[in-house]
């Protein structure tokens, strides 16, 4: 699905699952954290997972879900340090560099709009060579509201001054895309397979691609 690029000036891009492979985050929260929690409390992995799952589910969509400080305190574990220990698992999704390079060549304004905590952002951008493409890097923690909330978009447009009708937003989260749609972002694009280790999803509500370079002319 190729956007009408002549009608787009600004491109807002999610990070995890859009630019970067979500398999890192799924491994970290779905395996590494439960393993460490099990070791810390002398219980089985299964018991740790059963204990943590409702806690995680209860915070999804809230700013706390994305906050390293929150989970460091809640779990009593050095979450940022643990992320750095497995940073070799961080990787770009195929097509990311080609997409960003093309946007830059076309003179589009490129803004990262992520729910990731600033420390997570720092850890990940140290491992992938993409920061230089962006005109701005925005974390929802800067505004105190996740992308799922309209307050995030109000703060973002006030800060960045983009024309919502001439803006493309790309994300893998259905909830976040719904929020952007409600705000009136003119062009939306969904990623079908945010994690390389999980199957692609059937996306019908918005235009969708697997890899970002598929959205380029003749991509």
How would you describe this protein?
InterPro entries: HAD-like_hydrolase_sf (IPR050155), HAD-like_sf (IPR036412), HAD-SF_hydro_IA (IPR006439), HAD_sf (IPR023214). Keywords: Hydrolase. This protein is an alpha/beta fold and 219 residues long. It folds into two domains: 5-22 and 91-215, HAD superfamily/HAD-like (Rossmann fold, 3-Layer(aba) Sandwich); 24-88, no CATH class. 40% of the residues lie in helices and 12% in strands. It has eight helices and six strands. The protein has a six-stranded parallel β-sheet, with helices on both faces. It is globular and about 60 Å long. The model has no long low-confidence stretch (mean pLDDT 96).
Major pleated sheet: 6 strands, parallel
Q: If you compute it from the alpha carbons, what radius of gyration comes out, rounded to the nearest whole angstrom?
A: 18 Å
Which CATH architecture of the largest domain is right?
3-Layer(aba) Sandwich
Query: Which of globular, elongated, flat, extended, rod-shaped describes the shape?
Result: globular
The low-confidence parts are none
Q: What average pLDDT do the residues reach? A: 96
Helix content range: 40-55%
Q: Termini separation (Å)?
A: 9 Å
């Amino acid at each position: 699905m190729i956007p009408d690029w002549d009608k787009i000036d600004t491109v807002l891009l999610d990070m995890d699952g859009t630019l970067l492979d979500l398999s890192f985050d799924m491994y970290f929260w779905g395996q590494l954290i439960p393993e460490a929690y099990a070791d810390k409390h002398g219980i089985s992995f299964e018991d740790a997972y059963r204990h943590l799952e409702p806690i995680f589910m209860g915070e999804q969509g809230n700013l706390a879900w994305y906050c390293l400080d929150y989970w460091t305190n809640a779990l009593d574990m050095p979450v940022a340090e643990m992320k750095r220990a497995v940073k070799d698992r961080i990787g770009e999704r195929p097509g990311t560099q080609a997409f960003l390079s093309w946007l830059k060549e076309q003179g589009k304004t490129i803004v990262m709009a992520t729910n990731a905590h600033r420390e997570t952002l720092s850890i990940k951008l140290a491992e992938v060579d993409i920061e230089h493409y962006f005109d701005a890097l925005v974390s929802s923690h800067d505004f105190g509201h996740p992308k799922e909330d309209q307050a995030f978009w109000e703060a973002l447009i006030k800060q960045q001054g983009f024309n919502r009708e001439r803006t493309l937003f790309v994300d893998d989260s259905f909830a976040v895309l719904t929020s952007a749609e409600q705000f009136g972002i003119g062009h939306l694009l969904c990623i079908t397979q945010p994690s390389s280790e999980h199957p692609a999803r059937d996306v019908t509500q918005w235009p969708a691609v697997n890899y970002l370079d598929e959205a380029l002319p003749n991509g």
